[in-house]
């Protein structure tokens, strides 16, 4: 009898995010997922972030399912435009590559969404916050071994 084994997967050291492309009924296409520090899987769709708890509960945690935009705020007051890459830092914050807004966003455990870099317009410049415009990007890697380092691809 032949045995089935799980395929061997390799990840860069310290990488705890799993990048996927799948569809779930009612949510649409999921572009990226990451595992939070408490085991909750966080996923981004075209305009929102969802949490899938270890006990199977699904909840909308930021943005809105059908309303895109660029706004910081609490939970569903925030707006995203094609968030396509996420990761979770060592403090449990969800970092989001908000691709069509050309921005790097942060969702905190308290539910607040803020913009770390970018201003909604594409560009290249050194700077801090809105003074650091970004081009569309979709991949983030939180480097646990190098504190305060967040390469953006």
Short précis:
The protein has 153 residues and is mostly beta strands. A hairpin with a 3-residue loop joins strand 2 and strand 3 (28-30).
Write the layout of secondary structure elements.
Blueprint: E1 17-18, E2 22-24, E3 28-30, E4 32-35, E5 41-44, E6 48-52, E7 58-63, E8 73-74, E9 83-88, E10 94-98, E11 103-107, E12 112-117
Antiparallel strand pairs: 1-4, 2-3, 4-5, 5-6, 6-7, 8-12, 9-10, 10-11, 11-12
The best one-word shape is globular
Largest sheet report: 5 strands, antiparallel
Q: End-to-end distance, in Å? A: 45 Å
Query: Structural class, from secondary structure content?
Result: mainly beta
Provide the gyration radius in Å. Answer: 16 Å
Fold-level CATH name of the domain at 17-117: Thrombin, subunit H
Q: Work out the helicity level.
A: under 10%
Strand order of the largest sheet: 1-4-5-6-7
- How many H/I helices? 0
Task: Report the top-level CATH class of the domain at 17-117.
Answer: Mainly Beta
């Amino acid at each position: 009898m032949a045995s089935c084994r799980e395929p061997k997967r390799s990840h860069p050291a310290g990488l705890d995010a799993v990048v996927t492309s799948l569809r779930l009924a009612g949510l649409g296409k999921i572009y990226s997922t990451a595992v939070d520090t408490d085991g909750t899987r966080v996923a981004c769709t075209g305009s929102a972030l969802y949490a899938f708890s270890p006990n199977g509960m699904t909840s909308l945690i930021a943005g809105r399912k059908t309303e895109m935009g660029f706004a910081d705020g609490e939970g569903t007051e925030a707006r995203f435009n094609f968030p396509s890459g996420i990761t979770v830092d060592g403090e449990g914050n969800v970092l989001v590559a908000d691709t069509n807004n050309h921005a790097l966003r942060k969702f905190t455990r308290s539910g607040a969404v803020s913009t770390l870099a970018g201003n909604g317009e594409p560009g290249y410049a050194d700077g801090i916050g809105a003074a650091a415009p970004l081009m569309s990007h979709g991949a983030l890697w939180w480097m646990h071994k190098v504190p305060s380092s967040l390469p953006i691809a």
